[in-house]
Each structure stands twice: as structure tokens, then as C-alpha cells.
């Protein structure tokens, strides 16, 4: 027997109320500045349920929207997601094409008038070798970044096509070029100069720095989450995650990831912050 429409509506409203209450309580404590996600497990999720791989990726984008909204409601100002590795071009042509088409559609929806990124005043930035993407996707990327360019309340870094080593190499090349152009002195160069030229760091720096409790460290990751119980970074934001980042490897596949997974992660981070402030760490 199917539940009545009234019962379904009441359940949805109750869930919404509980969600709002949980997020309000979490917001009373310290909130991380920058959270990263390795969105792993879409393919395994699909295969275990007898679905097509494309369906797993589709449900993965729903999880991204769900998780991003949680972060934005908590006023987490920078969210970085590993959407596509440069190495993923080695996958089958059919899967890559389907994923590109899906990414173009779903991410564009986030940027549209009245949707999530406009509602919260958050810009979208694509980090990585965008020139490797198909021409129509490159055009969509430019349009999405232009649509959200004036938003200053936060940033969603979509790392695609990306590897951390490539990001670091690109930042090094940029630093060397600035030395050649006379913008900085080679005798004064520090690792901070290179870090500030990372694509993700530059994207975070474009956010209103008054919204961060520590603007200088906003490029670093406070929390890094990887789903599907895989315990490695897979060349994602290795520099940003090397300094006091709280790592979480959760068993949940990315398409199933949501509030029940985020709450203990955030509570654990808050506990760590409070213990530091009390001198217990």
C-alpha cells in the first residue's frame, strides 16, 4: 500500500525541519573555511544496483547539489570537488562523453538565475586543464564562470580535468614567468608565493576576505572527504591538504552521501577546534 500524499508531505516537512535544526546547531560552533570532496564510488554504486554507469554519475551530481547546499547553508565559503582527473581520459570514450554531457547540463543548472549559486552568492571556478575538454564544454565553462563572476560570498571549485601535480607545476611556471617579467624578485621568492598561484588558491582569494576567519589560510583545506572507503588522495589538492587537514574516508558511495554523513564529520572537526582552543591538543 502506497503512503498517502498527505503523509508524504508531512514526512518531507518533518525531515526539512530536522535538517534546518541540525544545521542551525552546527552553525553555532566553529565552521570550516574550506572543504574538499573526492566524489568516489559512482561506478561501483551503479554496478551493485544493476544500473548503467551513466546513472551512477547522474545520481552523483544530485549528491553534489545536496552536499553543496549543506555547506552553503552553514556558510562554508570554499568548496572544492574532484570532478574529473586528467587520467580519467583513459576511460572508455562512451563513459567520458556521457560524463562530459552530464557535467555540462547539471553544473549549468546550478548557475542559472535563481538557482543555488545565485541564491547564496557563490561563484563557480573550473580548476585544471580546461583546454583538454571538448569545445562545447569549454564554452559552457566560460559561460558558467561569467554568470557567477560577480558573486563574492563563496566559491565552488570544480577540479576538472585536474591533478594536484599539474596544478603545482602550473603555479611554478606562473611564478617563474613573474620573476622573468620583473614582478617579483627571485631572491625573495617563498613557497607561499607558489601556493598563492595555485588555481584553487586564486579562486578562494577572489571571495570577500572579510567572510573568512583566517583569510591567509583560506586556500588550505580544513577538511578533506573521500567517499567509497578508498583511503588515498589520488593526486587531489596534495599541497592544500598537507597542513593540519582533517581527513575523512567514509564507506558511503558518493551518490548516497548526505547529511547523515556530513554531521559526524563536522562535529569531529568542531571538537578538534575546541580542544585546540582549550589547549588540549
TrEMBL record:
GO molecular function term, any single one: ditrans,polycis-polyprenyl diphosphate synthase [(2E,6E)-farnesyl diphosphate specific] activity
GO cellular component term, pick one: lipid droplet
Keywords assigned: Magnesium, Transferase
Enzyme class, spelled out: transferase
GO terms of biological process kind: polyprenol biosynthetic process
Keyword Magnesium carried by entry: yes
Entry's EC annotation: 2.5.1.-
Gene3D superfamilies with a match to the protein in the record: Decaprenyl diphosphate synthase-like
Homology family: Belongs to the UPP synthase family.
NCBIfam families recorded: uppS (TIGR00055)
Protein's name according to its UniProt entry: Alkyl transferase
Annotated source species: Kwoniella shandongensis
Lineage: Eukaryota, Fungi, Dikarya, Basidiomycota, Agaricomycotina
